Predict the 3D structure of the following.
Amino acid sequence: TGAGIAEANHIACWDGAGWSALGFGVNGPVHAVLVLKGEVYATGAFTLAGGGAADRLARWDGDAWHEVSGGLGNTGRALAYADGALYVGGAFREAGAGVASYRLARLFDGTADCDRDGLPDAWELRISGGHVYCDPFTDQDGDTVPGLAEYGADTDPFDAGSYLRITGIGREGSVSRVYFPSSSNRWYRLHRAAVLPGPEPWTPVGSGVRGTGGDGYLSDTNTGAALFYRVGAGPDTF
């Protein structure tokens, strides 16, 4: 546990000149380590990493430890990266949130984001044909909207006509309606500004609403002054 420094619990880093601890380390043996995208993944017989719960699988980001995808049900012994996913082998029969997995698991799926670029691995795998290291700022369909924004709005990154935009603004009395194409998997919120660009930030209007999958609209009651509008989208209510 010493590694030539004051304290290094089961894991340490050698920089060519000396050893350094990775925070508070882990509370049990480490059997395999993998460096991926500048971060350290460790698996073994531990249940804590950096003082927090991490069942036999953890990630060090350079500053702190984090649990990974729910961890493992028993000891992990091997780590490998292939085809855009992290694989772990060991003596476990469950991985993640109680998912049956006999000695081998692929842990990055669903909303996991192993390269931490804001795009879930499952989304990147679908659009890239097999890997998760997509540039989130690439515009695949030439509609000037990068992949990160396409994911945020749940639009099709391969269809130049599929992107979040204001399609019209109407007014009935003191109520302005802002129209846009929506997804039933996203929530939307209206923002307004009196000057563009201006010293004051965009002001949220009302609360978020879930999309319908068709044409949607958001409303604003105002005095009739000239205003700029924008529509924001996200996977959760806001």
Notes: The chain has a mean pLDDT of 85. The CA atoms of residues 194 and 226 lie 7 Å apart. The first helix runs from residue 121 to 128.
